[in-house]
Amino acid sequence: MTFPMKHLAMVAVFACAGTAFAQQAAPAKPAATMAAGVLNGQTVRIAFMDPLSGSFASVGQNLLKSWQFAAERLSGAKNPAGVKFEVVGFDNKGSPQESLNTLKAAIDQGFRYVTQGNGSGAAAAILNAVAKHNERNPGKEVIYLNYSAVDPALTNEKCDYWHFRLDADTTMKMEALTSFMKDQPKVKSVYLLNQNYAHGHQVAKYFKEGMARKRPDVKIAGEDLHPLGQVKDFAPYVAKIKQSGADTIVTGNWGADLTLLVKALNDAGLKLPMYTYYASATGTPTALAASGESEVYIVSYSHANHTGEIGQMRADYKKRFNDDYISYSNYNGIQLLGAAMAKAKSTDPVQVAKALEGLSVKSFAGDITMRASDHQLQMSMFISKWQKVDGKNPYSLENTGYTFAPIKQMDAYVASTPTSCQMKRPS
């Protein structure tokens, strides 16, 4: 997800009034290999790099709070290594160049773990920079946890040993989505509307390929790619969708680009089934609720109505911030780090990276495994549908009285896709 920007990024520690999250970054403690059980009391700092200002700031700020909340919740005795996790926010403004600046600033401050997710362009820049840094600076290696940049290239031709993806990539999500859509007989004519950058192109490409294999009778009524984060009125695009005669919309849009699309559909009174990746993200549920119980679906590795520990975390997060805990990849990331550090008996990224390969842990939807061949997390996938809250699905997104209820769960193997990664490992 690439946003052209300039100027050196300022390090932004996102402070939440009344919480323990507003902390000045402390000097880094040197990583050390230790005996089992001696990691207790060590602090592991993670640099979060995503837009904290500009068009997509609301999403970035929500996700920073989510990472900080998960780190607080899963620190100490709540992880097998006994370490304390701290997450500090850096504003990369969604730009690859700004991401390089914030990465350098974080490394200069002693961070050995970084995470980013909003933007495959920024992700590619961070991946390459981390690889170069680690090659040139033995003993000061950095691990990059990618929590939602879903460009398949990042774990295929661009794969790197120091990069670990916590989200399902576009091919995995589209494999799950088209497997569901092929069994929906009323889907006959689809309009593809996506953002004009790598992610949007890939959503369109893999949808067409998947449906051609599974439902060759489905027609593409029309296709548009629009500028990322620049369209203020989607009415012209909605008019084209209506004119095309499409009976279904498929979009990988996120943030303001999805919220404004929903508003334009509402204004036009056009209620078509819509299949999405990110309709539960900040702002979009409120827009959806304005038109009532629309037929909108999400494909994801999670949903809004999990019970158990993650359900309690979601409820506690909302109570504290009056905001929705929309991404659980931070939960999986912290769980994997804690398990890998316990396995390695170390917080040293060299040892932790080795321990992460092939590692399986129990998550909120069964076992998840960090595939060793490409560092792509393997996990269950869900299809969820927009509806009013009920006794079975009580979580109200953005206090709207509506939720995304799970209607289908797919085992990890269903959405798992092959990789072309030729992983080069450190000697």
The dominant shape is globular
Parts with pLDDT < 50 across at least 5 consecutive residues: 1-37
CATH class of the largest domain: Alpha Beta
Sheet with most strands: strand arrangement: 7-6-8-9-10-14-15
What share of residues is helical?
Answer: 25-40%
Q: What CATH architecture of the largest domain do you see?
A: 3-Layer(aba) Sandwich
Main beta-sheet strand count, sense and barrel state: 7 strands, mixed
How far the N terminus sits from the C terminus, by CA atoms, comes to 33 Å
Q: What is the arithmetic mean of pLDDT?
A: 91
Total number of distinct structural domains: 2
The CATH topology annotation of the largest domain reads as Rossmann fold
CATH superfamily of the largest domain: Response regulator
Query: By helix and strand content, what is the structural category?
Result: alpha/beta
- SSE arrangement, N to C: EHEHEHEEHEHEHEHEHEHHHEEEEEH
User: What is the C-alpha radius of gyration, as a whole number of Å?
Assistant: 21 Å
Please give a quick description of this structure.
With 427 residues, the chain is of the alpha/beta class. It has helices at 57-73, 96-108, 120-136, 170-181, 198-214, 235-244, 256-268, 284-289, 308-321, 329-344, 349-356, 412-415, and strands spanning 43-50, 84-91, 113-116, 143-146, 163-165, 189-195, 219-226, 248-251, 274-276, 296-300, 360-363, 366-370, 377-378, 381-388, 402-410.
